[in-house]
Write a structure and sequence with these properties.
This protein is α+β, with helices and mostly antiparallel strands and about 290 residues long. It is built from 4 helices and 16 strands. The strands form 2 sheets. Strands 1, 3, 4, 6, 11, 12, 13 and 15 form an 8-stranded antiparallel beta sheet that branches. A hairpin with an 8-residue loop joins strand 8 and strand 9.
């Protein structure tokens, strides 16, 4: 019996743990360019995306994940960036896909970027929250992080939480926990809607537009199909994202988030009764943090 238990232990450490935790050391090891290869530059821990009138550019991780923390330092298009969108998000594929979004909507010189966040579950989105930033995101690199676990999703900027979406699946509210998602980055033209609803178009005389990324880290559970649904959600020590400290924001974090939401939030779908004809989505009536 002792030998059998030893074999089981060795199997766990040799097979299960390597599939659970992955720390990617650089963009070049983690990602590959999927669009606009003639524009993008991927070298070491640096990724540069370029947009001009001929094409934008994009990259994605080589592997999908289920739960963990995904961070990158990003420096956005400077100056007149109206019409441009820099995206950093997680997504699965197909018509029933899940998705967790950061999108950064450019603006004319002197006007602030808009941070656009959204969440799709089983192909359904319409959960937008938007913010202005409290700094110039084109002047230097800042940290943008998505933390996703079986309990909640948290969007962070420079370690400050700006949004939380909690898991109320047991009450009939869909939550992304059964599909592996890759990390995507892109820079593209959205002059028809990105800046003031499309009233301000992309000024191509300012091209090329350049967004820079570095320090990408995916501390996450690798997706190996349906077996990962339980494996990545198990409350074991190696699944650090399931520990109690990551199930609820601290008092200090709540204070930080309330400061952002009180001073810089410009749109919340849960306040838009007109859009939903008075029938707000059910999660709008649940405590999120």
């Amino acid at each position: 019996m002792a030998n059998f238990e030893k074999l089981i232990t060795l199997f766990f450490f040799a097979i299960v743990l390597p599939s659970i935790v992955l720390v990617d050391a650089s963009f070049s090891k983690s990602m590959h360019i999927t669009w606009g290869a003639q524009h993008a530059l991927l070298q070491g821990d640096d990724l540069q995306l370029v947009l001009d009138k001929s094409s934008g550019s994009a990259a994605q991780t080589k592997k999908p994940f289920l739960f963990g923390t995904f961070e990158s330092h990003i420096k956005f298009v400077p100056g007149d960036s109206a019409g441009t969108v820099t995206a950093y998000y997680l997504s699965s594929t197909g018509s029933q896909h899940d998705e967790i979004d950061f999108e950064f909507l450019g603006n004319i010189s002197g006007q602030p970027y808009i941070i656009h966040t959204n969440l799709f579950t089983q192909g359904n989105g319409n959960r937008e929250e938007q913010f202005y930033l409290w700094f110039d995101p084109s002047a230097d690199f800042h940290n943008y992080t998505i933390h996703w676990n079986p309990t909640e999703i948290v969007w962070y900027i420079d370690s400050i939480p700006i949004r939380v979406f909690r898991n109320y699946e047991n009450e009939g509210i869909a939550y992304p926990n059964k599909q592996g998602m890759r990390v995507y980055t892109s820079l593209w033209n959205a002059g028809d809607w990105a800046t003031r609803g499309g009233l301000i178009k992309t000024n191509w005389t300012n091209a090329p537009f350049i967004a820079k990324f570095n320090h990408f880290r995916a501390r996450a559970c690798k997706w190996h199909g349906e077996v990962s649904i339980n494996q990545c959600a198990s409350n074991i020590a190696s699944n650090w994202w399931t520990s109690p400290i990551y199930k609820q924001l601290s008092y200090a974090q709540l204070g930080q988030m309330n400061w952002v939401r009180d001073n810089y939030m410009i749109y919340n779908y849960c306040s838009d009764t007109k859009r939903f004809n008075g029938q707000l989505p059910p999660e709008c009536f649940k405590a999120q943090y």
